[in-house]
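WARN no homologs supplied; continuing
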Amino acid sequence: MKAIVIGAGLIGLTTAFELSKAGIEVEVVERSVVGSGASRGNAGEICPEQATPVAKLALIVSALSQAYRKDSALHVNVGTLPGYLPFLLRVARNSLPRRYSENQSALAEIQDLAMSAFLELAEEVGLEASSDGYLSVFADEQSAREGRQSTLKRTSGSGIPHTVSEVLGPRDLVEIEPSLNAHGYGFLDEGSYYTNPINYVEALHQHLLEAGVSIHEGVTVTSVTDFEGRQRVRASNAHFDADAVVVAAGVGTADIASASGKPVPIRPGKGYSFTIDVPHPTSHIFKFDSAHVAGMPLAGNSLRIAGTMEFDSDAHRFNSDRIKQIVAAVAPYLPEEALRNRYNEWVGARPLTPDGLPIISKLPSLQNTYVASGHNMLGLMLSPFTARAVRDMVLGHSTSSARRFSASRRF
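OK structure emitted
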């Protein structure tokens, strides 16, 4: 059996890895280079028990009231909002209490499966996943108390043990992480995992090459069709035939699925990040909740700062104002000199769905083509779970754990 995986990001690489392990001949086709899109520049969080659907009322309120402000965590480029209105109306419907609760339950149902799948894959490919935890920082004490209660509630049913501290003052935060400014209030959640997504991409890439998986970079796929009992992947300058196809092309999945007979409601939500060097090594994820920004430890004294959400019809356009917004948001908490000397500025488009849930499903319009995309801001933590679900679908096995993620559901 032969399978083609379209996309060499987090989802595509992990899916190719699982299919190859199952004895399937695999080829990967990538529009750009391995690990492009939203794969490498995210904050590395692996906390399925704390994941919430992005489709929430606060997103709609922010989109309509603050989206054109340069200092808003959510930004809509001029001229883009009309094109996003149908999508935002669907988001609004999914933010209503009943629908939001149903979507949250769908994520909760798979949290333990997702966590165990990630840890098993990390061990298998030699990927370091730290459980040192998350240090949440808020602008004021009351917000910190509310954030702590929310974390306690979300982690109470987790299969992974968590220890959540009492609310900490500015000096306590600096004692835990000396690179912080003495500002704000927060708490430490020990037990939540994180990993460096660059290491994730490189580890899987290396394993695929060693397994003999062919990876074609710089090939833009336009559609998939049924062809003589198989699946044909049509690209700009070539075609590939296989018994099964998995479309894991991030935001590009929408165009491929539409051209293949089944549109899926995926739109880009761009995130930005940059790297700073701080005075001391860090060991925790920083969650600057009041600023809607996260920080992830890298090698040495380096720290990746990631955040913001930008709606833009051009998924690849870099907007320097978004970097400035992140800098301003975290300025009270991090050294001024480190922020001024930032480097490795990055933008990547997250594939958003109206209900905040991924699409892990057979594409109804074709004989044996599957979609694995629309993971919103959960792509890293859900990659191994998604890959295993898709592997089972391709092999014809039962996939009840992914039943809520159909391409044909009512978004």
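The longest strand covers residues 267-277.
OK
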